[in-house]
Amino acid sequence: LLHVIAKKGKGYLPAERNPSYFHGIGSFEIATGNGISLKKKPPTYTEVFGNTLVELARKNDRIVAVTAAMPEGTGLKAFSKAFPERFFDVGIAEQHAVTFAAGMATEGFRPVVAIYSTFLQRAYDQILHDVCLEQHPVVFAVDRGGIVGEDGPTHHGLFDFSYLRNFPNMVIMAPKDENELRHMLMTALEHPGPIAFRYPRGYGTGVSMGDEIRPLPIGNAEVLTRGADVLILAVGATVTPALEAGKRLEDQNISATVVNIRFVKPLDTELITRLAREIPFILTVEENVLQGGFGSAVLECLADAHITASRVVRLGISDAFVEHGSQQLLRSKHGIDTPAIVKAVKNMVD
């Protein structure tokens, strides 16, 4: 029997002292181990989530946080220090984390389960039977939703819209920016049933976050721009490139209505069908596989309303595993960035 115990960072003292920090490190000084920041950047989505949860937990002592061996990676380190008695790290056991949270929900707590999208897949059965079937108010903070980048095909969170959307009683959200993420967290904590919000890896868009945190009306989308030629329905991280595409299209005399869909489930069917009857072309954009994802939900919505789907184009991840690479490179390669949106719209209109 060979029993091997890993020593993270072995041979490099700064990494031995702080293995969690060096688990995923950017540029750093070799001599000191200190990180190098070339310019000031907005906070990451993970940081905004963690800080907002601490802020809301100060006002509600029923809020508890659960992680599966990822307190730093999911942004819960600050919560664990502020509320050690309300923080639970269950180890690498996502299935147990979900069922454990369901149990706490039965006793009046408001558990927030923060897990990477790719790892939440391991708890598929527990989400279905232990949370959704019983309608327990468990909040799923689904980190690393979408293209993750350099961690490779095992870490991309490209399936959560699809594997969560078919669960009865589940609500699914995705914020367009880090400020909307704050509002979605409050929305989730005030919702009386299972609810998930997914957000991407990386830095926010740099928007102001000074306004008061408020819950969003469940199932309501947000119209960002008005145009008569094409309807662009975007969700989560694809909203910003959709807006940029709308500006470029305007320079080419193509006007776009851009909608921040916000809720993948329930969809804002009233808004979508009304706009679909007014605007000749429809484009959906998502950072998720196309099979069973957001675009599929829109097609189902249009079919139920007896609106032809022949003028609908869906942008998303095709039926393939996404390889290793930067987020920018992969979004370009798989056709969900600003130039791809512009190209898709021009092809439709032409």
Describe this structure in words.
The chain is an alpha/beta fold and 350 residues long. 35% of the residues lie in helices and 17% in strands. The chain is built from 13 helices and twelve strands. The strands form two sheets. The chain has a seven-stranded mixed beta sheet, sandwiched between helices. The protein has a five-stranded mixed beta sheet with strand order 7-9-8-11-12, sandwiched between helices. Strand 8, helix 9 (239-250) and strand 9 (256-260) form a beta-alpha-beta unit. Helix 2 (45-57) packs across helix 8, helix 4 runs parallel beside helix 6 and helix 9 packs across helix 13. It is globular and about 65 Å long. It starts with 12 loop residues before the first helix and ends with a helix. The model has no long low-confidence stretch (mean pLDDT 95).
Write the layout of secondary structure elements.
Blueprint: H1 13-17, H2 45-57, E1 63-67, H3 77-82, E2 87-89, H4 94-106, E3 110-116, H5 117-120, H6 124-132, E4 139-143, H7 160-165, E5 171-173, H8 178-190, E6 195-198, E7 222-225, E8 230-234, H9 239-250, E9 256-260, E10 263-265, H10 269-278, E11 281-289, H11 294-304, E12 312-317, H12 327-333, H13 338-349
Parallel strand pairs: 1-2, 1-3, 3-4, 4-6, 5-6, 8-9, 8-11, 11-12
Antiparallel strand pairs: 5-10, 7-9
